[in-house]
Amino acid sequence: MGTLVHASAVALGECGLLIRGRSGAGKSALALDLMARGAHLVADDQVMLEPTGAGLQMSAPATLTGRIEARNLGILTAASAPALARYVVDLDRVETARLPEARETVIEGTPLPLFYRVESAAFPSMLYVLLQGGLA
């Protein structure tokens, strides 16, 4: 059946990013920034998570498919498609280490690498390159 979580999600190819954070933390804004760089929308505001043999499938609830909030502008439409979660970013926590130790979170029995928000204008670019090629 899966679990519905308060989050946003984008993907680049087959590589999906689950964006977590409190209301107003910037989940939709980060998703929009990544979409402007070439990622595609999976879901905004609510993400359905479903464990599969291939990994943790992320998708939008039917009522939110293809919609993303642009705060102070309105609800935008965008192509969206399910994707497998490969990474999680938590916008409620700030990264302070220059080269942080690897972190992991387990969602629906699936371990995923976890990153914290980086307070830099380059943060969306960092995540985009992560989705393109992963960590060294």
Question: What do you see in this structure?
Answer:
The protein is α+β, with helices and mostly antiparallel strands and 136 residues long. The protein has one domain: P-loop containing nucleotide triphosphate hydrolases (Rossmann fold, 3-Layer(aba) Sandwich). It is 16% helix and 47% strand. The protein contains two helices and ten strands; from the N terminus they run ββαββββββββα. It has helices at residues 27-37, 123-133; strands spanning 3-12, 15-20, 40-43, 46-52, 55-59, 67-70, 74-77, 83-94, 104-107, 110-117. Strands 1-2-8-5-4 form a five-stranded mixed β-barrel. The chain has a two-stranded antiparallel sheet with strand order 6-7. The longest helix is centred in the N-terminal third of the chain and has 11 residues, at 27-37. The N and C termini lie far apart (35 Å). The mean pLDDT is 96.
